[in-house]
Predict the structure of Magnesium transporter MgtE.
Amino acid sequence: MSEITLTPEQQEQLIEDILEAAQEKDVLRTEKLLKELVPEQIAQLLETTPPELRHFIWEHVEPEHHGEVLAHLNEEVRTKLLETLNREEIEELAEELETDDLADIAQSLSDENKAILLEALDEDERVAVETAMSYPEDTAGGLMNSDVISVRGDVTIETVMRYLRQLGELPDNLLELIVRDRHNHYLGVVKLSDLLTHEEDTKIEELLDASKPAVLVLTPAKDVAKLFEQNDWVDAAVVDSDNHILGRITIDDVVDIIREEAEHAQMAQAGLDEDEDIFTPPLVSARRRAFWLGINLLTAVFAAWVASFFEDTLDKIVALALMMPIVASMGGIGGTQTATIIIRAMAKGVLSGPNMRALIRKEILVGTLNGLFWALATGAFAWWWFGDALLGFVFGAAIFINLVAGAVAGALIPVILDRFKIDPALASGLMLTTVTDTMGFFALLGLATVIILRHSV
Amino acid sequence: MSEITLTPEQQEQLIEDILEAAQEKDVLRTEKLLKELVPEQIAQLLETTPPELRHFIWEHVEPEHHGEVLAHLNEEVRTKLLETLNREEIEELAEELETDDLADIAQSLSDENKAILLEALDEDERVAVETAMSYPEDTAGGLMNSDVISVRGDVTIETVMRYLRQLGELPDNLLELIVRDRHNHYLGVVKLSDLLTHEEDTKIEELLDASKPAVLVLTPAKDVAKLFEQNDWVDAAVVDSDNHILGRITIDDVVDIIREEAEHAQMAQAGLDEDEDIFTPPLVSARRRAFWLGINLLTAVFAAWVASFFEDTLDKIVALALMMPIVASMGGIGGTQTATIIIRAMAKGVLSGPNMRALIRKEILVGTLNGLFWALATGAFAWWWFGDALLGFVFGAAIFINLVAGAVAGALIPVILDRFKIDPALASGLMLTTVTDTMGFFALLGLATVIILRHSV
């Protein structure tokens, strides 16, 4: 019977034990416990451990796992740990890792160490790593691996099987072989399972699946992920514009892309960088975040500046000061709901013109309906709270106006940002609150000035 | 040479053409163009198309793709489209789909149609679908498929190859066979590539990889996703607590889980449900969102109520009304940054006690540093704006207090929610703004009352 994987509770316990052992500088116990984790788990442990313990743990990871762990670390943490490696350890990396990971890591190395790494590779691998490094990291070329096994269409299964036996070790997760012509052009794939279920004298071309396309080397990583998802691929060949086979992308790298995309969206909303070490020294971290706080301060000050034109009104009706944040917040929330729906629909990548317009119309209608409902509810509430029907009316009307404004801004801002190639996840929230704060203050104070003050004069 | 997949621009054009054809009720053109999309793309198109056109397009999807399209639709849209199917079409689903998808879809069918579907299945499949339906959807049992190919360890490669040839069609993305004993207990796996590279008289047990564990049937889906990611699996066997083989999970279903998790996190932040049809009728959609707006209103009113105790102060210093939203917003942004870091670190699943405490300490320190910096900057600014040093001091001090409060709340709220098994993505933002709004108003108005009013009396 095979071992069952650890439950999340057991994993948590194991992590705590490792931290305890590391804290006590218990080398033997740390090393023993670390052996129970796979490299990806070690990478996560290192990312979520403060620097002092992190280095101790890192030094006691089995050297043959160094490469895999580095491959799974985020950029900032990886760069720091790479600085601790000596020549021998860098040379060891060269032996362990596949070319896509080597290319990734090489980019975080100092020039000197990069040279050591490249020298330690054999000719084929060095060419492969240098090729991978020549493509942008976030394209098919940056994701691909050089461990392609390709065969010609005019040979028999028997020949292929002999060839595979000669190769000895085959790449992980090998599902199909790539079929090429004599000039290394991509023709399609043949499944390993088809090789097994056909007679040995069958020609490869009879089993060829020519309908599976290859991925162009400059395809953006997020489009590669979409192709894999839409077609349920486990791997795919990468070709240049002349259809020459360059490498192979496997699903495990695509899964990492999908995770990173999701993390990026989440972090960008708060103006954070997903590549940052969560244990960056506080002063550095504070400085980086100050920028985002500063931008936000500007938008809040802008809204306050608009409100400042109504100081006389505020001076006369102090209840407005209590209402201002409520009006702004309702518009902001309503607008965020709309913007989230629009951003998600855009991310699916199939929201074209007519559908987008239909969705925007629907969202504005939803905002209007909620505006009407909450205008009545909040208006009645304010009437009761401040005992002033006119003030209740002004409050309700401002809520209505700001919920509609929020829906309109929430629908249009992501579309406009996208058209200007600005990441909607990053900037939508900020622009949206600028609109809803300013519009909320303006509607509330403007209406109060026009309706109540003029009325009472 | 094989066809190259569509570029995103071509895909967009194709989608627009389909919508145009559907708008013009051009049946032939719609059908022809739809053939260029894979089922997952058709599903995305249907989700992002308003109901009138959606039904027209759906009716012209090739019937043999109905099943795969349904399998990729979100629940609400799927349920609506299933209602349009007649008996014959439901029976057709039974033929096309794998048992995991059938179990999913069956749960959205009326009882009558569910019976039709189950009757159309053969004995084995019906048992498999009913088994899958008996496990919660978000567990390994709900994800698994019954298309397991398992072999005994004491047979030779030759026997296995004969068996595979008899089976004829093999499941998609078959990378390895599951090895069992005579009582259907899970022993491990054997790679197809190993079958190809060894002599035919080799026994399976010699090639057995017993180190790959099976997944327990009640493992939560998100833990299954983690196992696949950490171990770079493409498939895995599912077993019951007695280690009997029940089914198999493949990476394509895991990729869907990862996407859904990311969508859930994104939507939950705005109080939205990722299973909702984006074209839900506006009135229904408005009613659903009203709940979230209502909760937010309560928190905003609470903060205003706290501020209302300082009405006298507000009445005397009207500039405070302009400062209130700024103080609240700075604390909210700072707190959101901290909460995002903590939520992300928790999602990695390895943030245990000591590391969590170190991270919380670091975040509070970052908040304090930014608090100091922005207190000086905003204090000086307010002094200049309102020409009042004391008011500048009060404003800066309130900003400092609220940035520290935001960091503390942003660090602790997700941890506390998690301990109470409440989804931090859903409730953190709301609770955080409640804290930062209330604390911001209290600090600003309280300090003004104590320092300026007392001072001036």
